């Protein structure tokens, strides 16, 4: 019995030794890991225990060899900026290396690092600061995943890099600065396992070479945001396993062929922002699994194929900004029950807007502006409970603005509403018909521009507490600007130019919270939209795309009949970037307080009746890129030593100004940079003591009472004074009598 007990203890002791030997890490690899830790500047890794297999991010196999080194998102930084290739190269049994989402720098062009990791299967160094070119080849024939995205790597991706990529399934080098062509030999029989290729957000150029069809298991091919040209290779359509083709923002051209119908598994087709032409493939509808079609910003023509309505899984259909046309009423949208986003803007579609669109109950965004559609707001639109973005403007047939507003009030989630150029000649909805207004509680962007609407600014707008952008420009709106506009808590963009507004610039407008307080504006954040919106700062500027509700803090009131002085309170709008008050009847001096608007980029005060000088304090407006004060009554020198001299002379013409950039020089240099004294002189004169009149009054009082006072108050002086006057009078009479007698003797 005792022998059996001793045997049992020996067995337990032996098993403990074996267990410890299984998990004890190799000492040479422990030293390499410690050396790696020493190369890091922050943060410190808690690698202190004897067994490195228990360290954070470390996994060992049963023999104690390190197989996994995974330290993603740890804020790791290197002391010398040199990638620790030597210490990693000693981890010869490593299969998984994940150091992504850190701040590691250095070059990967280290042969010792790549050639020694013969068992590596997963390599993820994405989202770091690595630079340099890629090594000549991948480190291991066993490697399955390579993710080097979001670094600073450059150079070409050589075909030899994939010579040993027999088991490669995913390759991602997106968001770097790689150049040259996409390697043509990446797909070959030896790489039949390849499923995911991502070359997007680089500088790749040239055409897409044939060969993708050899990747028999390829599911995702991304190469957007590059400089690729040429047409789509026909053999790409042989990769029948493809689920996503994403090549936006390139220069691809040519037509899409019917070969695309072979891609029966395709769910995403993104060829937007290219130069594709021709008609859409007739059998595009065979791709029944398609969920996302993005072909906007091309030169496609013809009509939408009727087969497209067979793509019953379609969630997003974007065909905007092409040359497409045809009768929209021929399409039956009722089959597209999953449709969420529809963008057909800027095409040549015509016909009556189909009511079948209201069968798409999941629709969140409709954008069909700039066509020739006959559109009416129907009550059926209320069935689209998730509708948040509606753009129907710049079509024809849109009438009954009051009825449309009353219907659309029921769209509780509506965020953006654009009905520009509709309801021509009607009156702005107001009064009794809008008394029960209680809608648009989530509306942030309202566009009723270019509608030729008459009437006054409606009071129901004061209830839109979420409104950020209000565009009522190019109408026939009359009356004054209501003071309650200044109480809208979220308003940042106000466009009411080209109307018939009168009265003064309301001081209440200078208290808009989002233009006054940076803290309030900072808390607003971005509101992301279902479909992007497009903003073009000027006619010759590049159109920019925004996936969120974009706005520029501006006030446009040009081409109206506004008068009076510009309020000095305008200096409170510190976040304002653009102010256009041109072509009005403003008078008086330009408020010096405008210089408080430090973010001002565009200021137009032309064609008014402003007088005085250009305030010298405008030298502090450092961000001005557009400035115009032409055709006013301004005088004096243009403040020098500022960017005002960089503007064209036409921005100052029609005044009595002098100095650069005008050809006429000022007579004296004195006062060129002096502050505008016209306003100061006026204020000084108002408060100056009238010393002239004071001295006259004091002189009169002193003289009168100095002479008359003693005569009234002292009798002796009065008797002596009158006696003196009598003597003077008697002498005067005697003198006159003698003169007369002398004259008579001469003439007798």
From TrEMBL:
<comment type="similarity">
    <text>Belongs to the RLP family.</text>
</comment>
<keyword id="KW-0675">Receptor</keyword>
<keyword id="KW-0418">Kinase</keyword>
<feature type="domain" description="Leucine-rich repeat-containing N-terminal plant-type">
    <location>
        <begin position="28"/>
        <end position="61"/>
    </location>
</feature>
<dbReference type="InterPro" id="IPR013210">
    <property type="entry name" value="LRR_N_plant-typ"/>
</dbReference>
<dbReference type="GO" id="GO:0005886">
    <property type="term" value="C:plasma membrane"/>
</dbReference>
<feature type="signal peptide">
    <location>
        <begin position="1"/>
        <end position="24"/>
    </location>
</feature>
<dbReference type="InterPro" id="IPR001611">
    <property type="entry name" value="Leu-rich_rpt"/>
</dbReference>
<dbReference type="GO" id="GO:0004674">
    <property type="term" value="F:protein serine/threonine kinase activity"/>
</dbReference>
<keyword id="KW-0433">Leucine-rich repeat</keyword>
<keyword id="KW-0808">Transferase</keyword>
<dbReference type="Pfam" id="PF00560">
    <property type="entry name" value="LRR_1"/>
</dbReference>
<keyword id="KW-1003">Cell membrane</keyword>
<protein>
    <submittedName>
        <fullName>Putative non-specific serine/threonine protein kinase</fullName>
        <ecNumber>2.7.11.1</ecNumber>
    </submittedName>
</protein>
<dbReference type="Pfam" id="PF13855">
    <property type="entry name" value="LRR_8"/>
</dbReference>
<dbReference type="InterPro" id="IPR003591">
    <property type="entry name" value="Leu-rich_rpt_typical-subtyp"/>
</dbReference>
<keyword id="KW-0472">Membrane</keyword>
<keyword id="KW-0812">Transmembrane</keyword>
<keyword id="KW-1133">Transmembrane helix</keyword>
<keyword id="KW-0325">Glycoprotein</keyword>
<keyword id="KW-0723">Serine/threonine-protein kinase</keyword>
<keyword id="KW-0677">Repeat</keyword>
<dbReference type="InterPro" id="IPR032675">
    <property type="entry name" value="LRR_dom_sf"/>
</dbReference>
<dbReference type="Pfam" id="PF08263">
    <property type="entry name" value="LRRNT_2"/>
</dbReference>
<feature type="transmembrane region" description="Helical">
    <location>
        <begin position="689"/>
        <end position="713"/>
    </location>
</feature>
<keyword id="KW-0732">Signal</keyword>
């Amino acid at each position: 019995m005792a022998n059996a007990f001793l045997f049992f203890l020996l067995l337990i002791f032996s098993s403990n030794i074996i267990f410890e030997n299984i998990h004890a890490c190799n000492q040479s690899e422990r030293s390499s890991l410690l050396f790696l830790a020493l190369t890091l500047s922050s943060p410190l890794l808690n690698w202190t225990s004897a067994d490195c297999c228990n360290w954070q991010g470390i996994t060992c196999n049963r023999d104690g060899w390190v197989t996994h080194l995974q330290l993603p998102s740890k804020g790791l930084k290197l002391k010398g900026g040199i990638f620790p290739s030597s210490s990693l190269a000693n981890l010869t049994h490593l299969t998984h290396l994940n150091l992504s989402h850190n701040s590691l720098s250095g070059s990967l062009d280290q042969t010792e690092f790549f050639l020694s990791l013969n068992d590596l299967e997963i390599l993820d160094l994405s989202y770091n600061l690595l630079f340099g070119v890629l090594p000549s080849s991948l480190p291991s024939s066993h490697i399955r995943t390579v993710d080097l995205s979001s670094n600073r790597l450059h150079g070409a991706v050589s075909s030899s890099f994939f010579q040993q990529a027999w088991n490669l399934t995913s390759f991602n080098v997106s968001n770097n600065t790689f150049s040259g062509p996409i390697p043509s030999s990446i797909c070959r029989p030896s790489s039949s396992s390849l499923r995911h290729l991502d070359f997007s957000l680089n500088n790749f150029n040239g055409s897409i070479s044939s060969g993708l069809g050899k990747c028999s298991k390829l599911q995702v091919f991304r190469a957007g945001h590059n400089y690729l040209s040429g047409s789509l290779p026909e053999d790409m359509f042989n990769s029948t396993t493809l689920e996503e083709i994403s090549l936006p923002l390139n220069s691809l051209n040519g037509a899409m062929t019917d070969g695309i119908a072979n891609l029966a598994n395709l769910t995403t087709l993104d060829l937007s922002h290219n130069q594709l032409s021709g008609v859409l493939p007739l059998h595009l509808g065979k791709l029944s699994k398609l969920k996302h079609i993005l072909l906007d910003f091309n030169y496609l023509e013809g009509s939408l194929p009727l087969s497209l309505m067979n793509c019953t899984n379609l969630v997003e259909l974007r065909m905007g900004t092409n040359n497409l046309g045809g009768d929209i009423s021929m399409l039956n949208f009722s089959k597209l029950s999953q449709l969420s986003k529809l963008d057909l803007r800027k095409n040549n579609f015509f016909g009556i807007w189909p009511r079948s669109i209201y069968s798409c109950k999941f629709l969140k965004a409709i954008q069909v502006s700039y066509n020739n559609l006959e559109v009416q707001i129907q009550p059926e639109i209320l069935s689209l409970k998730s509708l948040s973005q509606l753009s129907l403007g710049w079509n024809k047939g849109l009438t009954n603005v009051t009825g449309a507003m009353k219907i659309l009030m029921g769209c509780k989630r509506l965020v953006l509403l654009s009905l520009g150029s509709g309801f021509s000649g009607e009156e702005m909805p107001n009064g009794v018909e809008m008394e029960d207004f209680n809608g648009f509680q989530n509306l942030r962007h309202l566009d009723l521009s270019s509608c030729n609407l008459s009437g006054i600014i409606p009071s129901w707008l004061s209830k839109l507490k979420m409104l950020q952008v209000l565009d009522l420009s190019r109408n026939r709106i009359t009356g004054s600007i209501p003071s309650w506009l200044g109480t809208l808590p979220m308003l940042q963009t106000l466009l009411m130019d080209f109307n018939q507004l009168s009265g003064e610039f309301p001081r209440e407008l200078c208290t808009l919270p989002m233009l006054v307080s940076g803290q309030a504006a900072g808390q607003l954040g971005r509101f992301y939209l279902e479909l992007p919106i497009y903003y073009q700062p000027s006619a010759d500027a590049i159109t920019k795309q925004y996936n969120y509700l974009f706005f520029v803090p501006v006030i446009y009131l040009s081409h109206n009949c506004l008068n009076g002085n510009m309020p000095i309170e305008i200096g409170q709008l510190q976040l304002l970037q653009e102010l256009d008050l041109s072509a009005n009847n403003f008078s008086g001096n330009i408020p010096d307080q405008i210089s408080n608007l430090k973010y001002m980029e565009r200021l137009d005060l032309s064609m008014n009746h402003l007088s005085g000088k250009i305030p010298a304090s405008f030298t502090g407006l450092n961000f001005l890129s557009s400035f115009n004060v032409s055709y006013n009554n301004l005088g004096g020198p243009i403040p020098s030593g500022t960017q005002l001299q960089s503007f064209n002379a036409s921005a100052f013409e029609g005044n009595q100004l002098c100095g650069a950039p005008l050809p006429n020089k000022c007579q004296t240099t004195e006062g060129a940079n002096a502050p505008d004294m016209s306003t100061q002189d006026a204020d000084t004169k108002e408060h100056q003591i009238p010393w002239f009149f004071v001295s006259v009054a004091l002189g009169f009082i002193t003289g009168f009472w100095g002479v008359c006072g003693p005569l009234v108050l002292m009798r002796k002086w009065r008797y002596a004074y009158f006696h003196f006057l009598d003597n003077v009078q008697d002498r005067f009479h005697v003198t006159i009598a003698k003169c007369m007698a002398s004259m008579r003797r001469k003439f007798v």
